[in-house]
Amino acid sequence: MVYSNSFTGPEIFDDVGSISRNPQIRSLWPLTEAMKAPRPDETTAGRPILCLSLAANYAVTGLEVWSYHAFNLVVHIVAGMALFGIIRRTLLTERMPEHLVDHSWILALVCALIWLVHPLQTQAVTYIIQRAESMMGMFYLLTLYSAIRSFHSRRAIWWQLAAAAFCALGMGTKEVMVTAPLIVLIYDRIFVGKNFRNILTKRWMLYSSLAATWLLLGAILWQAPRGATAGFSLRHVTPIQYALTQPSIILHYLRLSFWPSRLVLDYGWPVAGELGNVVPALLAVCLLLAGTFAALRYWPAIGFCGLWVFVILSPTSSFVPIADLAYEHRMYLSLAAIVSVVVCCTYALSARFLPRARQAKLVAGIAVAMLLAGSLGWRTYKRNEDYGDSLRIWRDTVSGAPRNYRAHYNLALGYDYLGNDEMALAHYDISIALDSTHAGVYNNRGAVHAERGNFDKAIDDYSTAIRLEPQRSSAYTNRALAYRYTGRDNAALEDLNKAVEIDPNDDQAYHQRAMIYRKLGKDDLAISDLSMAIRLKPDRGIYHQDRAAAYLNTGLHDLAIADCQAVIRLDDTRDMPYRIRASAFCAKGDHRQAITDLDKAAMLNPKEARIYGNRGAAYQKLGRHEDAIRDCTRAIELDPHYAPAYINRGIARSHIGQYDLAIADFEKAIQLDPCNKEVRLQGARALSKLADAMAGSGRLGRAMETLTRAVRLAADAEDEQLAQTIAAKAKLYKAEKVP
After folding, report:
1. Which residues touch 528 (CB under 8 Å, ≥6 apart)?
2. Measured distance CA(390)–CA(457) in Å, rounded
């Protein structure tokens, strides 16, 4: 199977915005939401059936790509089967030569097979989001096949309804389907009907129902216009420029149909310049078009195939501007006519000029066809290897279209993903040198500068991206992160507010803003933003984790535990959710459960001092002072500057009578963290207990000195009650009345 190596191909190019960054496909219900595009400039915009197919894939495997590729392949195979049926039934019509009728089954099979394995089809099949073309092609072929069946069937009405249904589905998949009713009518006139008047009178129901699907397409385009990517409002190309550029592109498509030696994912085809440069291609296309009309007079079947090519290409290769001037997947359906003409004409010529040894000739013809199909299939297999690696496909694209800024940009993205900053920056620079008007390039180059710690350069790039495209929310979000790293939280907050205003679905903006709110002590606002981020991306564990920390700070311990459990379900290899949940359990008084979580955290991250410090504190609460001392000592070994570990070890030591060691720990903690009131309180309590032990052994003088230090620590901690209690004890000692 020539597509057996396509199932692991990653998302590339427009796949990312239409699949992994598309919140609309996360649920199949309600259908109206699943059939919408996230933004008007995405490939899915105005194509509800395409959107629904992606939502169905997501329901099956989430973001695992194999089901998306499997769906594309099934669509392609069904389209091939429909093409086989169309060609076979066409060859059986009374208007076809008898020698073609005799071998209609074999000829149809050869045509469909070559069409299926042709390398030119890889973009429509292996490039996931270009199922827009292959799905539309499948519905197009099924529409024509159903119409052909209706011409001679006793149950014509059912086939007519099927044709209308497939046509409607195609209209909801891609706009090129607009030509389908016209192609059915032309086919009917050439191969079946007497004249157009007779056809429309006899089969008025079929053609009225097919024409009705134009209303459906009109409604879709009215509700979800594609003005950002197609139409007369495009600024970088006028209708005349577009029309003058297309003849060269059409000739390129034809060359690839016969010799697919240099396929390119993204041509970045330049707009035609001087008129003199386009005249040869324009004349060639005009001659081909004239030949098509001449063939309609003398060889109608060949003329129909010519019309098939030109009519189907007309929505994308005429005068209506489309942002991208050339794409190989646009030949998906047109290639069927070219293959059919070549195969059938080759057979017809051989039958005419080599009339003898028909059986041997048939065997030889089949052998040649299989050899050709095998050769094309191998080329398709190798092309799929290019699609199997995002870096490889963009290297190939840069090689085929070195002046395409977008190819260098996407290659830079590939290097960036692999952590090769130098190569990423090099290709971002080339992309900007080729075309400095695209905000996305600056936005992503800024991200590389930020990763390298060059925040000033990053901010400059983000600012340029915002100047070029003021409504690009990601640029504000990225600049906000750079501002945060440079300590400019107020500027970051302004950018994040703008990002959320532009794109209410920007989960990263909500997350970043929540982090600033947490830093400012506004945990309630942080929780609100994190909840929005989680609604948008429920599978992002970090959002649940940060909300758990905010819940913990506000005393909502059960909610913190629930969020930690959500993180652990998503990824149980990180220690932080266990640590946060342990803190929540400690706050609820469930120290045993906290120790269980900290045991797991220590297994996952055995070099983190705070895990041992927290577990030591939990042991201390349970009265397991030796265990507490052991864990706190381990924490201090890992981080000698970790003050809480000294505090907890000092508390544990004071409980088992090691007052001198406890005081030494508290003094070290005070030295490390002189502003920590808790350290001073614990030190005061330990000194008080040490004074009791000294007084009990008759060392009242030492006891008095120790209590004086304890009173000073309690006063420094602003605990007047404790200071007064210790002072009262000192008076008793002074009166030699040991309690």
Report:
1. none
2. 27
CA separation for the pair 641, 610 (Å, rounded):
11
CA distance 441 to 462: 10
- Please give the Cα distance from 690 to 654 (Å, whole number): 8
The residue written with tokens 């400095």 in the block is 436
Tokens, residue 318: 């005429």
Query: Residue 702 carries which side chain, given as an amino acid letter?
Result: R
Least trusted range by pLDDT, from 88-92, 347-351, 602-606, 704-708: 347-351
Query: What's residue 361's pLDDT?
Result: 63
What is the rounded distance in angstroms from the CA atom of residue 487 to the CA atom of residue 288?
66
Look at residue 5 and give its three-state secondary structure: coil
As a whole number of angstroms, the distance between CA 207 and CA 160 comes to 9
Cα separation, 614 vs 611, whole angstroms: 5
pLDDT of residue 416: 92
| Residue 324 or 670, more confident | 324
pLDDT in tens, 170-227: 999 999 999 999 999 999 999 998 899 999 999 999 999 999 999 999 999 888 777 6
C-alpha pair distances (Å), 524 with each of 511, 530, 547, 562: 13, 10, 10, 17
Could you state, in order of their start, the residue ranges of all structural domains in the chain?
14-380, 607-674, 684-739
User: How far is C-alpha 531 from the chain's CA centre?
Assistant: 21
Q: Cα-Cα-Cα-Cα dihedral of 417, 422, 423, 427, to 10°? A: 100
- Which tokens belong to 283? 């004349």
Cβ burial, residue 99 (10 Å; 0-12/13-18/19+) = middle
CATH, domain 607-674, list 1.10.472.10, 3.40.30.10, 1.25.40.10, 2.40.128.110: 1.25.40.10
The Cα–Cα gap between 228 and 41 comes to 5
Residue 360, pLDDT score? 64
In 3-state terms, what secondary structure has residue 506?
coil
Q: From residue 34, how far is each of 54, 71, 127, 174, 533 by CA, in Å?
A: 9, 17, 21, 17, 20
Alpha-carbon torsion (135, 138, 139, 141), positive or negative = positive
pLDDT band at 305 (very low <50, low <70, confident <90, very high): very high
Q: Residues 308-360: pLDDT tens digits?
A: 999 999 999 988 888 889 999 999 999 999 999 999 988 888 766 665 555 66
Taking a C-beta distance cutoff of 8 angstroms, is the pair 214, 182 a contact? no
- Number of helices and strands in the chain (H, E): 37, 0
Name 684's bridge partners. Answer: none
Asked if residue 20 lies in contact with residue 58, where contact means CB atoms within 8 angstroms, the answer is no
How far apart, in whole angstroms, are the C-alpha atoms of residue 229 and residue 669?
A: 64
Residue 403 is encoded by which pair of tokens? 């002046």
pLDDT at 357: 56
Longest dimension (CA), the chain: 135
- Non-local (6+) Cβ contacts of 445 within 8 A are 412, 425, 428, 429, 432, 461
The tokens for 416 are 């960036």
